[in-house]
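The aim of this short unit is practical: by the end, you should be able to scan a pair of folded records and say something sensible about each. We start with the first protein, listed as its amino acid sequence and then its structure tokens.
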Amino acid sequence: MKLFKKILLVIAIIITIILFYCVLNGYFLYKEAIDEKSINDRISNLQNDEHFVHYSDIPDYYANAVISIEDHRFYYHKGLDIISTLRALVTNIKARDIKEGGSSITQQVAKNLCFTQEKNLYRKIAELFVVYNLEKDFSKEEIFELYINNIYYGNGYYNIYDASMRLFW
């Protein structure tokens, strides 16, 4: 029994060291991104775009549709949807490949504001530091507003204004 406890202790120590290493690398990636340009400066640049669409100008049915598809627990979590993340993790482990994402709307805003689209564990951890700042400093409506003004809609359109003007008119 003592040997079993020692093995468990060694495994727990190894897992702790690996987690610490990953979080530290994620933090350094986050610091690099915000040292280059602060989150508030990135948001100000986005909001100062002449085609920035405010939340109040979005029909409720559109906001509800996007939230129900992208992150139906958006109003109930603090930026990280644990259920979606675990679901995606299990799916990806079973597939032995990245087949599904579990990012919340806030995580997608964090990624699009500060990072590349590269799929990387350290980037996912770095996103969480940005998510914390976003959820602390902005309302859910403001985060949604940032989301619709900074996501890819297809056909080369990266915000709701360009997409609606080019695709629907």
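Turning to the second protein, read its sequence before its tokens, just as you did above.
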Amino acid sequence: MKLWQPSNCPYNIRKYLFSFLLLLSVILCLPQTATAASRPKKVTGIKCGTTTSNSINIAWTPQNGVTGYQIFRSTSYDGPFKKITNIATGNQAFCNLNLQSGREYYYRVRAYRGSSVGKFSKILTARTKGAAQSATVRVSANIRKHAGTNYDVLATLSPGTKVTVICVTNAKSGTPWSRISYPINGRRKTGYIRSDLLSLKGQSSPKRKGVVIAAGGLHLRRSASARSQIIATLPTNTSVTILMETVGADGQKWYQVNAKLDGKTYKGYVSAQFIRIS
């Protein structure tokens, strides 16, 4: 018995078989080739330009043949990053307005072409201008590379160490942190410390009063985040003392407050939108 081989086929059949296989290989290669060719490159060269007390300018290296760029921002180095705008092609800069003074913000940018998006740029750290504040470390405290206990310890400062607060920021949980300049081995270094471990010089401004206006009550949380642990639930019309304000993990304003409930004083964070200043 003879095995079938292409050479045993009539010439016309071999010709059509070869054409079919060639066409099939082209079809299989087309989607990958098209996708690779259409996807924009990773954005590079991202940097911070001019800043004011309420604005930050950022810029990056432009790309050819893209539709535009997507700008993402976070109030924490760890995110979450939320898209704040699209920038049309031909532009490679963006001015972010209406920001809080003396605060650190984080940006990532990616290019897009139609529905295809490229990889994100590296994280850009930028801050608005604000007056530096002298402070004292309250207890033995670790200084970290970024805001969060998951980052490397750069130094450990003793109680009473004098530092300078450059700006404020948040950990991903919403806990307030400060970027500081501190002395180490006769030199000045910068790093991050939890804000509640500092005593600011001259911190004696009168505390503001507020009232809970949330129907059904308002959760008092351990940090400025809707995912943070609930300490207590404050009924509507509960009076609170506002100790400080910060930007929460959601990018919105939160208050650190004291509140009395059933004869006990609680301290924690509440969303500012549910507090009426009295």
